[in-house]
Design a protein that fits this description.
alpha/beta, 2 domains, four-stranded antiparallel β-sheet, seven-stranded mixed β-sheet, 342 residues, Rossmann fold, binds magnesium ion, binds adenosine-5'-diphosphate
Length: 342
């Protein structure tokens, strides 16, 4: 069955449009909502950074975009429109074609996604063969393309490494192979979920400049999930800050870094609240851990940790009312006091 284009969903400026997406794990009264009513867009060739403490729902959101949320997770509501197609209504086969072909996911632990007993060459050739159709064997051509893919990610000794098994490569090399695998079919969108977290600083920098190069040369759009705000400032065009399953601030990197509006973003940028590890032992460090989905507070989910809430004498509105946002603005923050000097 041909993929049906939803005319109404075509939006020439955005490659991806996410509308009111919610994802839950489990069902019934014990269901846990990990992503709650999230909406955003990604333009062609845009690099969008996604940051937030552990448990805020970043990975679940990435998996939902790929339509691979593992059971007992389910997309409860919302739409993901990718290049004019509503991914939620496609068949399993159509979705499989889009994944890899047009939409690629690169995760933190590249090794875990590879078959340990298969050489690198075979891992890459398999992708090409799947794409070309089962039974297609054009070994020489596939091998050439695999080599080219490895060279394009600046993997040293590509010929030699093609013959190696995953565990014989360093972490940085494994990640390069994973990126080469993600790129080989020239996807329109790459979702990179903390692709450099496990790597040392030098290799991280190399992988990041590689992703940037891919965008610059191929116009690929990238969702880049990271714990590292400096990296966001360096490689992203726009940034979204996630807290307790929601986007709490969104804007261009310049807008958000120069003029953060949400107290949570301000705390992250000022270092009061690190994205990883323990807060510094200063008196004004923000208290507590981010809430788990089963314990999300009422009203603004950040209020129990919010210095502005305390400074303003704990106004009822923060406890009682969900902040309303105008998501059509270039820069917005989900805070009742976002634009006020407090
Ligand atoms: P992040 O990537 O921001 O660290 P995740 O998306 O991994 O956050 O997790 C968000 C929340 O979703 C977790 O706190 C957890 O409650 C829930 N969650 C994630 N994966 C599962 C799962 N496989 N089963 C049940 N709950 C899950
Ligand atoms: Mg994660």
């Amino acid at each position: 069955m041909p993929v049906v284009f939803d005319e109404a969903a075509v939006d020439s400026e955005s490659l991806l449009r996410v509308e009111n997406l919610s994802v839950e794990f489990g069902s019934g009264p014990r269901a846990v909502r990990a992503v709650d009513d999230v909406s955003f867009t990604i333009g062609h060739g845009e690099i969008l950074g996604l940051v937030g403490e552990s448990g805020s729902g970043k990975s679940t959101l990435c998996l939902a975009l790929m339509r691979i949320v593992p059971a007992p997770g389910v997309v409860k509501s919302g739409r993901v429109v990718f290049d004019g197609r509503d991914l939620g209504v496609l068949s399993v086969r159509q979705m499989r074609e889009i994944r890899g072909n047009e939409l690629a996911l690169i995760v933190q632990d590249a090794l875990a996604t590879m078959n340990p007993v298969t050489r690198i060459e075979e891992q890459i050739v398999e992708i090409l063969r799947d794409h070309a159709g089962k039974g297609t064997v054009d070994r020489k051509n596939f091998r050439e393309r695999a080599l080219r893919a490895l060279r394009s990610v600046h993997l040293p000794n590509a010929e030699l490494n093609l013959r190696r098994y995953p565990h014989q490569l360093s972490g940085g090399m494994q990640q390069r192979v994973a990126i080469a695998q993600g790129l080989i079919l020239e996807p329109k969108l790459i979702i990179a979920d903390e692709p450099t977290t496990a790597l040392d600083v030098t290799v991280q920098a190399q992988i990041l400049s590689l992703l940037r190069e891919v965008r610059d040369t191929s116009g690929t759009s990238i969702v880049f999930v990271t714990h590292d705000l400096a990296t966001v400032a360096e490689i992203c065009d726009r940034v979204m800050v996630m807290y307790a399953g929601r986007i709490v601030e969104s804007g261009t990197v310049r807008e958000v870094f120069k003029n953060p509006e949400h107290p949570y973003t301000k705390a992250l940028l000022s270092g009061l609240l690190p994205l990883v590890g323990e807060p510094p032992e200063e008196l004004d460090a923000l208290p507590g851990q981010p809430p788990r989905p089963e314990d999300w507070p009422s009203g603004c989910r950040f209020h129990p940790r919010c210095p502005v809430y305390v400074r303003l004498g704990k106004p009822d509105v923060c406890r009682e009312t969900d902040p309303n946002v105008d998501e059509t603005q270039s820069h917005w923050a989900a805070c009742h006091f976002a634009n006020q000097e407090v």
